[in-house]
Amino acid sequence: MGICGVGTLPSDCPLAEAMRAQDGLYTLSIKSPDGSNSLRVIGSIVEYLFAPDNHDAVVERMVDAGVRIVSLTVTEGGYFRNFATGAFDDLAEPIRRGAENPIRPQTAFGMVVEALRRRRERGIPAFTVMLCDNIPGNGEVARAAVVGTARLSDPELSDWIDKVVAFPNSMVDRITPRTTDDDRAAVERETNLIDSCPVVCEPFEQWVLEDRFPMGRPPFEHAGVQIVADVEPYELMKLRLLNCTHQAMCYFGTLAGYQFVHEAVADPAIAELLRRYMDEEATPTLPPVPGIDLDDYKRTLIERYSNPAICDQLARLCAEASDRISNWLIPVVQERLAQGARVPYSAAVIASWARYCEGIDDAGQPLELIDARRVELNTRANLQHEDPLAFLRDTSMFGDLADNARFVDDFTDVLESLHRLGGRAALAEVLSRNSKETA
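^ that's the sequence the OP posted. Answer follows.
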């Protein structure tokens, strides 16, 4: 039993070359706050395929009857979802191009569809598609993508997939920053091994998985996985507390000149923003989470962010925010507004992102916007000096928030302060103003 890894994008080529050179082995570097570093070599990847070199080899590997689970990790923007509706976008160019020649698929979803088609033709039961990413309801979102891809070329196959293939939901949580040259050098220094692709992470880990595997599964629970009937409470907890506080810190922190997460959270004002957002805005939207003490979880988050050994870059958290904000934070805003509450801290986060998208920090240094919609975001953001709601009027991301007077007041107050005072002073003003109101 083992894992066959697959790189699906041309940018995965360096990893594919490293995996081949290292026989699938890599070093896991677990960095603790006290500076200690636990290192071990992982050998679970027994094969690695690079799809751009041979898509058919990847499809045939999935057709193999010995393959019972196909695991996908997809970025927020990789599901080809319509920004406005959240539905699968079957008009996306890669999807349409793949539908014209489905037996030579180019996307991950196309390869899954073709593998399932061949298994069905050969009388091999369907594998389970297991998701491991940050999308709410990731199993159902993946189902929509796979079924929607199949429907463009073979409606009957699409119906069969929808009926027989399981797509269990999951929640995964472990801070894993981008590997740097310093990390590679440290591994070589401590182990005398040259590793081109070590993985760096924090000690904390949590994986919650819906128990829906018709073809069977390994005993994941023996490795600490929480096997549950309903993932949603855990998923909402993680997305609305961890992922949203990442967004809360990264724009204010970047505007203020910080580079790393631990630097930003060491700023008392940023740490206080995170606590107030979690306690006053996110937590009231969360259902009970079996086996979890939310107060303890929130304290642990601040401790995890404070780990200087991880050196998690704020730039990583700022990337692809158009997907992250709309999927993670906007639902919190909408729920609290529907409950009749104000959301001054969420409004401050969105205002800090709007200010960040202007492409320059408080010191006048340029900021690189990494986002599929970066041109549109930058254009809207740079209209804000004359029209403070220019950014917020994008209904595909914000719905009708620009029409909500309570939210608009909070948003425009913070945006004006950001322009007038800069990130640090504007955040201090937000905390002071709302502390007085709630005292």
